[in-house]
Amino acid sequence: MRTPEPGRPPGRFAVTDPATGETFDEAPDQQPAELDAVIGRAERAWRYWRADPAARTTALRAAADTVEAAGDDLARLLTREQGKPLAESHAEVARTAARLRYFAGLTPQTRRISDGRPVHSEIRWRSLGPVAAIVPWNFPLQLAAAKFAPALAAGNTVVLKPSPYTPLTTRLLGSLLTAVLPEDVLTVVTGREPLGARLAAHPGIRHVTFTGSVPTGRAVAGAAAGTLARVTLELGGNDAAILLEDVAVDRIADRLFWAAFRNCGQVCMAVKRVYVPERLHAEVVDALAERAKSVPVGPGLDPATRLGPVNNAPQLARVEELTRRALADGARAAAGGHRLDTPGYFFAPTVLTDVPPGSPVVTGEQFGPVLPVLPYRTLDEAVTAANSTGFGLGGSVWGTDPDRAEAVADRLDCGTAWINHHAELSLHQPFTGTGNSGVGVAGGPWGLYGNLRPFVVHRPEAAQP
């Protein structure tokens, strides 16, 4: 049994408001042993949930309506525990409902195999069983829905574990959906480690879908390997933006800034490095620094706020250390470069120049409001650098000739490449990465089929004697 937090009763843990750094609520610290009962109930619920596709469609559409109806309550609580501006929380709630509605409309398609033999062969699809969905703190609702909506639509049941930094909104979502989903089809469990590790390794789980850091993703994959459960891992990125010689800096500066700094830079597919032709480097640095210095930073519930705090103290310490190390190695902060002298987990929006290419703020994933801008001499040099970190989630190319930009984008080793914008996704498209950015595919029909297994039936075309 885990040691309780000082001053807190057993079975509970504190939830902190990142805008103040103070505890404002608590959540159940469920013990790993409790998972046996939860997963057992999910197994029993799966036996009837998988059997009625029409009922699943109706229930998921009702779930989308329920999320929209509770939008104000969900958004305010999300901002309180995650920190993002309230407008962004409302947008996240809307995307959560949209995912439910989208997957409610998808059904797996039976396919006939024609190979010249006198045999009628069909590929049909069957659900997997209970699915474990383990979700991080940057988009707790949106990423939860990206996992449980396709899993439920496919006929699986789901045990959903949010981050211990953002458990409250997910618990509220789960309680709302119990009114429209059958019992034990979706269960939310909250707690500190080793709850997630035990969930990933549980023999009753048939698919583990995880979003988070590379080290934790490797541990999840290792845990799931013991039961041979299917694994889908989205492990973040270090997306590069390459600006071409013909780019109009004044026209793209706002889009580029927000592609890097939205949600305080805490987006897996945010721009985390910018490569700029040498002659444009100073202009780009100045344009981004001007926006970093002027953007309103503050508590997410303040209507004037455009950038909120970093979500938690360990992440703030990481952002601070990466910035400190870069500055010690010779980088210069054109804007920011320091923690703000205010309560809460606030870090000044930071634009770095003169950054050594091997600095960890370039080669790793800072996941915060810090952006290095690096000059390049040749386009080949920029593409090589963009592909050199081991990550491969997304990337973008910016210029006035879209055909040329697309040709450069085709050279990026990543799952998604954008031209003159970044980090925009459609519900209909696959979302995947290469290298350290993960394993498997989410999004669109691929997300549905990732929660199914093929079942093939052969029979002779003609009656047998």
UniProtKB/TrEMBL annotation:
InterPro entries: Ald_DH/histidinol_DH (IPR016161), Ald_DH_C (IPR016163), Ald_DH_CS_CYS (IPR016160), Ald_DH_CS_GLU (IPR029510), Ald_DH_N (IPR016162), Aldehyde_DH_dom (IPR015590). Residues 12-448 form the Aldehyde dehydrogenase domain. The keyword Transcription regulation does not apply. It holds the Pfam family Aldedh. Residues 1-27 are annotated as: Disordered. The keyword Kinase does not apply. The active site is at E234. Keywords: Oxidoreductase. It comes from the Bacteria. Belongs to the aldehyde dehydrogenase family. This is Aldehyde dehydrogenase family protein. It comes from Streptomyces cheonanensis.
